[in-house]
Amino acid sequence: MFVPFVDLKSQYQKITSEINDAISLVFGKSNFILGENVKKFEEEFCQYLEGGYAVAVHSGTDALYLSLLACGISSGDEVITVSHTFIATYLAIVQTGAIPILVDIDPSTFNIDPDKIEEKVTDKTKAIIPVHLYGHPANMVQIVELAKKYNLFVIEDACQAHGSKISGKKAGLFGDFGCFSFYPTKNLGAYGDGGVVVTQDEKLRDKLLSLRNYGQKKKYFHERFGINTRLDELQAAILRVKLNYLDEWNNLRRNISKQYRDQINSPYVSCPVEMDQYFHVYHLYVIKTYERDQLQEWLAKKDIQTQIHYPIPVHLQKCFLKEFKNDFHLPVTENISKKILSLPMYPEMSNDQIKYIVKSINEFNV
Fold it and tell me: Does pLDDT of 323 surpass 90?
C-alpha cells in the first residue's frame, strides 16, 4: 500500500463542483484584484475566529512582515522568537532590519518556552512572535502577561494553527496580530499562496490595509511606504468554499491523531502531546524517536511517505551561521531536531491507510 504524506487531489475531488463554480463566478465578473471575494473572505474568516478584523495578503510570510511593519519595528529593534520553526518566521523579522532573538522551546509541545523569554528582554525588545507549531497553540496566557509587563507587541504565528484553541478561544486572537498562511497543504489551504493578518484594533487594521497596497489609503495617494501583497480574488473565492469545511477537516485530523495515539505501541516512539485546555488541530502529526533516520527509512521501504519538520534549526542554517557565535546553543531545539518525524496527516486518510502505518511502525525494530 502506498501512503502519500499529503493528498490534495482527494480533497479537491470531494468539493470539485463548489470550487469550479466559485472560480467560474470570478471569471464571469473578471474583477481579479481586491474584489468582493477578498472582502467577504476577510469578514467570514473573522466570523469563524469569532473576533477581530482581517486583512488578506499574499502569504503567511507577508502576514508576519506586515504585522511587524504595522508595529513600527525597524532596524536595530529586537524581536523574540524561536529557532524551531519554518524559516519564514525568522525572515519576516530580518526583512524589517530588526534583530531576531532566539529562545529555546518546551520539550513537550515544541513551542516557545515562556519561562525563557523574560531573560532575553532588553530595552531594544519590541515584540514577541510565538509560533503555534504543528497546530498546538503556544502558552499565550503567560506570553501575553509577560508582554504587557514590558509593553511589547505580540504577533502570533498561527500559520499552522487554523482553528486551534486555548480554553475555547481561537489562536490568532490573543496577541496584537494573528498571522495565518493558506499554503495549499495547510488545514485551510488555497490553490496557490495566500495569507491573512487578524487584529482586534481597527486602527491597526487600517494601517495594514494601506501597507498591503503600496501604502495608499485611496488610489494614487500614498501616505506611507508599503508593498504589493494582496490576496487575489481566485484564491479568496476558493478559500471561502473551503472555510465551510475547516471544522470538519480539523475533527477528522483529530480523529486520525487519536487512532495514531491509541494504536502506536512501539517502544521507540513517543506520540505528540495535547495540553489540558488546548485544542490541537494537527496540521502535522510529529512523533519523537531516537531512531528517527532508521524509522524513516523503514517506512519508506513500506511506501509510506514521511517528512521532518524541521531537520535544521534556523540558527544552524548555512545562510545565518555568521549571525550566531559558535558558543550559541539552544539545547532543547537542537536535541529535538534530531528526533522528530512527521507522519502522513490529512483529513481524507482511510482507516486502512492509518492501520497500515501503525502496523508498520509497531513492526519496526532496531
Answer: no
Residues 51 and 180 in one domain: yes
> Which letter does DSSP use for residue 366 in this model?
-
Place of cell 501503525: 358
Please report, for residues 120, 141, 167, 181, 233, the alpha-carbon distance to residue 246 in angstroms, rounded to integers and kept in the order given.
Answer: 37, 25, 19, 14, 20
From first CA to last CA, the distance across the chain in angstroms is 23
Kindly state whether residue 189 falls inside one of the protein's structural domains: yes
Determine the Cα–Cα distance for residues 343 and 306; give it in Å rounded to an integer.
5
Say which residues have a Cβ less than 8 Å from residue 217's Cβ, sequence separation at least 6. Answer: 210, 223
**What single DSSP character describes residue 253?**
H
Contact 5, 344 (CB under 8 A): yes
Domain with 207, as residue range(s), is: 8-104+111-243
pLDDT bracket for residue 266 (50, 70, 90) = very high
Give 355's Cβ-side CA count (13 Å radius): 3
Which pTM was predicted?
0.97
- Phi, psi angles (nearest 5°) of residue 52: 90, 175
Residue 149 lies in a domain: yes
Within-domain flag for 36: yes
Q: How far are the Cα atoms of 21, 32, 160, 209 from residue 274, in angstroms, in the given order?
A: 38, 41, 15, 36
Instruction: Count H helices and E strands in the chain, helices first.
Output: 12, 14
Cα–Cα nearest to 48, from 278, 239, 275, 254 = 239
pLDDT in tens, 226-257: 999 999 999 999 999 999 999 999 999 999 99
The interaxial angle of helices 292-301 and 351-363, nearest 10 deg, is 130
Measured CA to CA, the distance from residue 136 to residue 350 in angstroms comes to 23
d(CA 120, CA 116): 7
- Strand order, beta sheet including 195-199: 53-57, 195-199, 177-181, 153-157, 125-128, 78-82, 99-103
Select from 195, 225, 243 the last residue of a domain.
243
Rounded CA separation 140/178 (Å): 12
Write out pLDDT tens, residues 68-97.
999 999 999 999 999 999 999 999 999 999
